[in-house]
Amino acid sequence: MKKVAVVTGAGHGIGKQIAEELSELGHTVHGVDLPQVDLSDSSAAAEFFRNIGPVDILVNNAGGVVGQVHHPLEEITDEMWAAVFGANIMSTFHCTRAVVPAMKERGWGRIVTISSGAGRSVSLTGIQAYATAKAAQISFTRQMAFELGRHGITVNCIAPGFILSNPSSQKQWESYGAEGQQKIIDAIAVRRLGEPTDIANAVRFFTSPDSSWVTGQCLSVDGGHSLF
Question: pLDDT tens across 91-109, in order?
Fold first, then answer.
């Protein structure tokens, strides 16, 4: 049965690929990204979902480092920390809260959050708020799975490895230089970087009937990087 889906952070890269694949399955897909809507703003997020109506599938993909680079912890301002948390965990909270009531009414829902390998380990860029916010998304996934499972709603998470999916990740990749890039490749079991399709395939599984008894999970899609 075809569903109504929302994919946040759908302007490019991973989010765009997820939206395209869900659309190919026949779902009605609403993609949203900055500057269309700032999902870290509670009121803006609530208005966006009110205008759409009931949602069956939510993919929380919005996030990122909001243009930040590593600084020693003592140089991190409240504003820098809040910006990363807003883009990642607060947007996830606002969107999930918005879709849950209608999912409960229908007794069915699928929520998938795109976290990061940084949330299970450390940030390669050394951005403290990013690693922390991504870990918070994983914990939020578990808690929501426990709370919402009785209502027919599954909540799962994906932790991607390094994927060249947007200008920010491309800039990060180039900053490593040839030697640093090779070290990253060597630390991946399948010896290649990921592609947006790799993440979209995992979303396809978590939103399909095949995953109806899978919830509260965080799947590392990283070519085996987390093995090392």
Answer: 999 999 999 999 999 999 9
| For the chain, percent of residues with pLDDT exceeding 70 | 100
- Which residue numbers are catalytic? 130
- According to DSSP, the β-strands at 218-221 and 28-32 are unpaired
Query: In terms of residues, how long is the chain?
Result: 228
**Over the stretch 64-82, which tens digit does the pLDDT of each residue have?**
998 899 999 999 999 999 9
pLDDT score recorded for residue 228: 61
Structural domain spans, the chain: 4-163+195-213
Which H/E stretch holds residue 58? strand 57-60
For residue 99, give every residue at least 6 positions away whose Cβ sits within 8 Å of its Cβ, in sequence order, or none: 6, 49, 55, 58, 109, 111
The pTM score is: 0.95
Per-position DSSP letters for 72-83, written without gaps between them: -GGG--HHHHHH
DSSP, residue by residue, 178-200: HHHHHHHHHTSTTSS-B-HHHHH
Q: Which of 89, 64, 83 is nearest to 14 (CA)?
A: 64
End-to-end CA, the chain: 40
Determine contact, residues 60/5, Cβ cutoff 8 Å. no
CATH code for 4-163+195-213?
A: 3.40.50.720
* Selected residue with higher pLDDT from 157 and 168: 157
